[in-house]
Specification:
Blueprint lengths: L5 H19 L7 H29 L9 H16 L4 H38 L4
Helix pairs in contact: 1-4, 2-4
Protein name: PE domain-containing protein
Organism: Saccharomonospora marina XMU15
């Protein structure tokens, strides 16, 4: 997870949003056959991220037991906040990663639709003898 910090996730999120916008404007199209294995992989990755987030939620849902002295309690609170609640925490980064994966899938969904529309338009032109 060392490469998945807030800065890199923000950059990936922005690039994925650009990909969605490009697909919407027809900037790229892709056949369903080409998109299917990528979309399947994205779905599997989303499931893995969801499972990891669930595991981390259980682990970080409770402060670690670092003793009853004030220093241990302060460290435990800080550790829990840093891991689960703070900006840039593991949970926050995984949430962003989940959204990036969903956006990439959305871009492919749109690109497949645009591809179909383009194919239907082209075949309609040929059927009507407009070539």
């Amino acid at each position: 997870m060392s490469g998945l910090d807030k800065g890199s996730m923000d950059k990936m999120a922005a690039e994925t949003r650009e990909m969605v916008n490009s697909a919407r404007s027809g900037g790229f199209r892709v056949s369903e056959n080409a998109a299917e294995p990528i979309r399947k992989t994205l779905a599997e990755m989303q499931t893995q991220v969801d499972e990891l987030r669930g595991d981390l939620q259980v682990r970080f849902g409770v402060e670690p037991q670092l003793g009853s002295h004030s220093y241990g309690q302060n460290v435990a609170k800080h550790q829990q906040k840093a891991a689960a609640n703070a900006p840039g925490s593991a949970m926050e980064v995984l949430k962003q990663l989940r959204q990036v994966l969903a956006d990439a899938d959305k871009a492919l969904e749109i690109a497949v639709r645009k591809y179909r529309e383009n194919e239907e338009s082209a075949s309609g032109t040929f059927r009507n003898g407009q070539v």
